[in-house]
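Students often ask what a holo structure prediction actually looks like on paper. The answer is less mysterious than it sounds. You provide the chain, you provide the ligand, and the output is a string of discrete structure tokens encoding the 3D arrangement of the protein together with 2-acetamido-2-deoxy-beta-D-glucopyranose.
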Amino acid sequence: MATKTQTLILLFPLFTLSSFINSSQADCTPRGISVYWGQSSDSEEGTLEETCKSGNYSIVMIQYLTVYASGRDPTFNLAGHCGSQDKPCTILESQIQTCQSLNIKVFLSIGRDVVGIIPARGVENKTASFIFDNFLSGKAGPLGNVTLDGVNIFTVNNLILQWDVIIRALHSYATPQKKIYLSASPQCSDLFFQRDINTGLLDYIFVQFYSNPACQYDRILLNSTLLLKSWKLWISKPELSNALVFMGLPASPGGLILSNGFIEADVLRRDTLPTVQQAFNYGGIMLYDKAADNKTKYSDAIKDSVPKSCTCFCDESFPF
Ligand SMILES: *[C@@H]1O[C@H](CO)[C@@H](O)[C@H](O)[C@H]1NC(C)=O
Ligand SMILES: *[C@@H]1O[C@H](CO)[C@@H](O)[C@H](O)[C@H]1NC(C)=O
Ligand SMILES: *[C@@H]1O[C@H](CO)[C@@H](O)[C@H](O)[C@H]1NC(C)=O
Ligand SMILES: *[C@@H]1O[C@H](CO)[C@@H](O)[C@H](O)[C@H]1NC(C)=O
Ligand SMILES: *[C@@H]1O[C@H](CO)[C@@H](O)[C@H](O)[C@H]1NC(C)=O
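The corresponding structure tokens follow.
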């Protein structure tokens, strides 16, 4: 190892090497556990900083930003955490920076709440521009001066906005120095999401294998046939061959009677993951959500069975 490092230093001027190191760090795409945070209170799910410091997650998705078909500026809803006059969400600025300093990616989740039914012309580009200015540019926004790592589109067969246009517009703000991670969480049954996948621009897909009896684990019959059948369809989409696909699961069983797709952690480890992890584009497990995980300690139970590696995508200036 030492010999190789020395050779590098001899062969390349230092400035080249250091700029490469910076850009490769910025472009290190983690696998692991991703989690939604934001829709409960600090006491139910912990603060953002506590969530990152737990060491259990590699991606935290802040949920959520409401977007308006009319083109009105999107609005934040962080429920119990912040947003009041005496507790503005700029309190999250330093917490986000702490997460990022721990190499945890922080994404903004949009799309769960889309208000309005008739989209105004150009609303997609306007929404993307608002998101870039307020959350991805480092300029002052509702979360302070932050540069979030990316955006997550959380869709429920949602056809009101053209998400592919939003994805392309967000991508147009990325630079060789600053990648903008683009991710989406379609439901496993979502028939309309293909257009968004066809952009070829998604780095991550966190498929929601829950609240969808047709493609989730059947906890009553303890049967994973439909889940694994659907998983195979998602991982084999050619447009996702350069993306990382996560299996999205509820972190707690939810209602008592109906199965929501929850899989006991030991069943997941023993029966499901051996098949799931064979996919070359398998990235890890997405959990919904931190408050539920707080109750069940699901992430703690599975974290040693989920890959943690980080793939560095190098730009063209990379000499090897
Ligand atoms: C949730 O997490 C917070 C912070 O880590 C902790 O203080 C709290 O006790 C947890 N709540 C439950 C119910 O586990
Ligand atoms: C994962 O989170 C749990 C609490 O949910 C905590 O007890 C544990 O220490 C965390 N694991 C790591 C590696 O930090
Ligand atoms: C945040 O950015 C604004 C400009 O967008 C600047 O005026 C302000 O000083 C910055 N605040 C901090 C704490 O860096
Ligand atoms: C939206 O932005 C894209 C670039 O991402 C551009 O090609 C398109 O013309 C824009 N659409 C409108 C309606 O402005
Ligand atoms: C599991 O479910 C599938 C399809 O729903 C069914 O064909 C299969 O027989 C079931 N397996 C068991 C062991 O019940």
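The CA atoms of residues 31 and 283 lie 5 Å apart.
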